[in-house]
Structure of DoxX family protein:
Amino acid sequence: MNNILKKSLCSNNHALAPFILRLTLGIIFIGHGWGKLFAEGNPAGFAGWLGSMGLEPSYLLAIAAGLAETVGGLLLITGFFTRAAASSLVIVMLVAIYFVHIDAGMFGKGGYEFQLLLLAGVVSLLIQGGGKYSIDEIIYKKL
């Protein structure tokens, strides 16, 4: 019983945690990036919205954000170049918070609480890497 209690309170070496985080974030980012690239009116529609906020060159930024989210999400799911994918997604989330959501505050309509949570997740992966169940780990072991 004492050993179970110690493990539940102090264990910080569970290999499944980064996998679950990568999978969840990857699915979310792919969904958002795919919409920016391929939903009706996009990326031109997304570029127009970016341009209305003064973000230029809006079309290039729309493509870059859509690719970062879609490709980055796929890389997170597979655990391939996890830190590189996470770093690009950190930038996307910082831009989204600062240019889109900051004026609405953290909570409520248009707030940045969701983007902040995504940012925390990708920062965590940037720090710890893809974990045991990743392509990064397979490559690392072969090297």
Observations:
- Residues 33 and 66 are 4 Å apart (CA to CA).
- The radius of gyration is 18 Å.
